[in-house]
Amino acid sequence: MIKYQILVALGLLTLYSCNQDQKLLQADWIFVEGGSFEQGKNQFIISPNGDTVLGFTSPHRIVEIDNFYISRYEITAGQFKEFCKQTSRKMPEPPFESAHGIKVYYEWQDDKPMLATWDEASEFAKWAGGRLPTEAEWEYAAKGGQKSKGYKYSGSNDTTEIGWVGENSDSTFHSVGKLQPNELGLYDMTGNVSEWVYDWYNPEKDSLVSLINPQGPPDGEFKISKGVSWFYNTYGHDGKPLEYGIHMPEVRYQSPVDTRNDGFGFRIAKNE
Question: Which fold, 2-271?
Answer without folding.
Answer: paralog of FGE (formylglycine-generating enzyme) (3.90.1580)
